Amino acid sequence: MDKYYRTVRRVLIFILVLNIIVALAKVLYGWYSNSLSMLSDGFHSFFDGASNVVGIIGITLASKPADKDHKYGHWKIETFASIIIALFLFLVCFEVVQSAITRFFNPSAPEITSISFFVMGITILINAGVSFYEYKKGREIDSKILISDSMHTRSDIYASIAVIFGFFAIIAGYIWIDPLIALLIAILIAKTGIGIIKESSEVLLDKSVIDDGVVEKIVKSVPDVIECHAIRTRGKKSQTYIDLHITVDPRYSIEEAHNIGNKVELKLKKSIPGVKEVLIHLEPETD
């Protein structure tokens, strides 16, 4: 397992422990105080932990080297794991909506105390630190799974803030606010899940990673390259694959043309961080 995968797995394990602590605090006190919004937020946090487990499994499988059946390696498993995290979010969303609708028809006042505010305040601080750290690490090493998971945790922060505002409304006598806050949390969870699927799908569908003009400019700066076209890029910023065609003088020998291609590959890898492989098709210049 290389440094990238070791880093991602270490971050996920650390965050898993924190998410379990946060989730237990919310669920146990939410159940004790009969607060549906707090309980829903706690289940949301538990699924944060579940997504960490999915991420750890996914990153372990993604780190496997290329083999005869998977010659490009297994790195896309990381992106696939991000989509599974999104599906977990939709499951949480369904459960929260179901509970909120039940509470609307069977209202009951939760018990709100200073401990309720304390528990939510502490969990918000922990989640804020987790989200910032995970997102920062994800951007540093271009990890889709860390970025997706940080978005998951960020939605938990917003949900917790909504729960605190709901506490004030409940104290004022508006007990219907509790299930309403739970519904708002469900919408937030669903929005986060859609965002993760959209971003992950771009990798799985091989959306272009680098602008063609950037690649063309670098390639044409290499001596003896006459033209560059049919540029295709895929993957992700830290692991980009480039295919392209270059035109050279037909009087060059195969060896000379091959050397020009090597220069193009080295120039692209040097100029664009994260380029893993460059496939070049050589063509003779024609009138």
Which assembly state applies to the chains in this document? single chain
Considering DSSP H and I runs of 4 or more, what fraction of the residues is helical? 55-70%
Which series of helices and strands comes N to C? HHHHHHHEEHE
Largest sheet: 3 strands, mixed
Based on Cα principal axes, name the global outline: elongated
Q: Which residues sit in consecutive blocks of at least 5 with pLDDT less than 50? A: none
The fraction of residues in strands falls at: 5-15%
Taking all Cα atoms into account, the compactness measure Rg is 25 Å
What does this structure look like?
The chain is mainly alpha-helical. It has eight helices and three strands, in the order αααααααββαβ. α8 links the parallel β2 (239-248) and β3 (275-284). The protein has helices spanning 3-33, 36-62, 76-105, 114-141, 144-171, 177-204, 212-220, 254-271, and strands at residues 227-236, 239-248, 275-284. The longest helix is centred in the N-terminal third of the chain and has 31 residues, at 3-33. The mean pLDDT is 83. Helices cover 69% and strands 10% of the residues. The radius of gyration is 25 Å and the shape is elongated. It has a three-stranded mixed beta sheet with strand order 1-2-3.
